[in-house]
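Tokens for chain A. Residues wanted.
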């Protein structure tokens, strides 16, 4: 065991260049003086070159909660794992979240409680590490990988928990001389916590999402500073969140088991505890089982997947709110006109069972959202998307503004609203039947089997004779019915069902013939509206062209 004096000597030996005291350090991060009830939260991703949808999910929780009560939402970059880091990773996070409409009050782009990137805070961590060493709450450990492996083997053999703790933590009580000698040999070392916890002691803890939980105390002498001088997640979390004045830590459930360790760290560092809310990560169903949405296996785990295809942002955020608080769906129905930001998100209402991310449901929400927009909005939003991702579509939209808005307006009013557009990418397919260059080379679908090519010709001719562009739906349909009835196609569907042999077919076949002749397609939006948008010239030219 080392004496207090020896610990102070050790601290100076390990951190000779660190002159600042913990008190001085804390003065640099004064209390924020916010009104009671305000929240200071942070989203703290690691820059791995990829923005996971879970990051949008978690940062949305942070952003919404702060906006509801006032406070500060921080973006902190946790780049302490140099092996995982990727160049440009910070921009991918900042720009990526911004594309989802999520901005921060303090971040690498500015703020008084920075730096907001951990690799620029290394001396800060050392100030606290030095303090802990001087108090006997931390110590250098020179055990190498091989020795750690031996400890693990021994623990396995004995049938006890593996890890660096208690009697197995061979460097925790080393004498100053032993440490000096190891340092003199130039051995690499890490700084470990000197845990005073007892794993057999249980305690209760209130998580803001999970509620009351029971834990065993931490007794692991975990690494605080790595041999390269970088902090571990645990150490940096306690220091950064305290200095930055964070009063609620929202993070994913994978950190939940670390709570006992974090509480011990806060205590040893002399920090006030911070509330925690552990949210479930986004999950996916596979073979009847839930698993985490995975960066490696699921293309839809990447935010790019949605941005590149042009999924509208608002319904994605709304879908997330619904995963968080299932009462969002009812609220949305009751308040169709309100922005999602009016919904009050509550941590205590979070779905504890897990956050199931279902593409089918998400696409439904997107479809509904786009169905509720005006044609002009669809035009504008898809235009903005296309400017980044589809130059051909931009050109088409630009050169045919009015026509495009008219096309997008088909089935946008009345009882039958179109729901075929899930994402901006789909807008292109809505245009296909109206543009010659898009239809070129497309095979024409076959005519109904019960209509001979001769009859097809008669139908088209008869329609052209009677067609008038100003006809409203009912006049237009009466004309089609008339042609049908003359040629033996009935509009009495019951009579047809009773004895189909009496007829050549149904009136629907007439519309189908015209649809295919006009668009090459057997499935299109409402044919009368399609004709209206095409206009007299195109309708006549197409139908005549078909006959040649
Ligand atoms: N950098 C950690 C992660 O990406 C942050 C966890 C936290 O929010 O505390 O998982």
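Reply:
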């Amino acid at each position: 065991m080392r004496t207090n004096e020896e610990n102070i000597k050790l601290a100076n030996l390990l951190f000779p260049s660190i002159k600042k005291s913990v008190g001085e350090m804390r003065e640099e991060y004064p209390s924020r003086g916010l009104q009671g009830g305000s929240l200071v939260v942070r989203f703290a991703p690691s820059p791995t070159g990829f923005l996971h949808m879970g990051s949008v999910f978690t940062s949305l929780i942070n952003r919404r909660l702060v906006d509801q009560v006032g406070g500060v939402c921080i973006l902190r970059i946790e780049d302490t794992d140099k092996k995982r880091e990727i160049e440009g990773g910070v921009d991918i996070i900042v720009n990526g979240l911004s594309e989802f409409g999520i901005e921060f009050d303090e971040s690498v782009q500015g703020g008084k409680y920075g730096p907001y990137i951990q690799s620029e805070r290394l001396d800060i961590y050392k100030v606290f590490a030095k303090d802990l060493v001087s108090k006997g709450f931390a110590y250098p450990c020179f055990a190498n990988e091989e020795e750690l492996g031996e400890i693990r083997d021994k623990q396995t053999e004995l049938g006890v928990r593996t890890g660096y703790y208690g009697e197995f933590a061979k460097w925790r009580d080393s004498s100053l001389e032993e440490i000096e000698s190891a340092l003199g040999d130039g051995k690499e070392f890490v700084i470990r916590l000197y845990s005073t916890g007892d794993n057999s002691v249980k305690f209760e803890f209130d998580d803001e999402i999970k509620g009351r939980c029971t834990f065993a105390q931490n007794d692991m002498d975990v690494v605080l500073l790595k041999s390269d001088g970088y902090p571990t997640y645990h150490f940096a979390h306690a220091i950064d969140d305290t200095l930055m004045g964070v009063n609620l830590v929202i993070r994913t459930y994978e950190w939940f088991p670390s709570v006992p360790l974090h509480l011990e760290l806060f205590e040893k560092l002399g920090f006030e505890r911070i509330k925690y809310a552990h949210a479930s990560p986004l999950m996916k169903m596979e073979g009847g089982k839930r698993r985490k949405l995975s960066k490696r296996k699921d293309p839809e785990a990447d935010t790019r997947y949605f941005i590149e295809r042009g999924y509208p942002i608002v319904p994605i955020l709304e879908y997330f709110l619904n995963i968080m608080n299932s009462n969002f769906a009812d609220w949305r129905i009751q308040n169709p006109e309100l922005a999602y930001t009016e919904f009050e998100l509550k941590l205590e209402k979070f779905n504890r069972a897990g956050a199931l991310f279902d593409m089918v449901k998400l696409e439904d929400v997107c479809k509904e959202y786009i169905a509720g927009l005006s044609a002009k909005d669809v035009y504008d939003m898809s235009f903005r998307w296309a400017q980044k991702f589809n130059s051909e579509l931009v050109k088409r939209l630009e050169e045919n503004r009015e026509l495009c808005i008219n096309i997008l307006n088909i089935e946008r009013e009345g009882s039958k609203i179109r729901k075929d557009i899930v994402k901006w990418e789909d807008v292109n397919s809505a245009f296909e039947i109206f543009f010659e260059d898009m239809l070129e080379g497309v095979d024409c679908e076959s005519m109904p089997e019960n209509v001979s090519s001769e009859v097809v010709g008669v139908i088209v001719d008869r329609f052209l004779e009677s067609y008038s562009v100003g006809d409203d739906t009912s006049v237009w349909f009466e004309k089609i019915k008339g042609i049908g009835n003359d040629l033996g196609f009935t509009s009495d569907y019951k009579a047809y069902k009773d004895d189909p042999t009496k007829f050549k077919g149904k009136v629907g076949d007439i519309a189908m013939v015209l649809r295919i002749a006009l668009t090459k397609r057997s499935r299109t939006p409402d044919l009368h509206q399609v004709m209206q948008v095409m206009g007299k010239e195109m309708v006549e030219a197409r139908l005549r062209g078909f006959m040649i």
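The mean pLDDT is 95. The domain at 453-547 is CATH 1.10.10.350 (Arc Repressor Mutant, subunit A).
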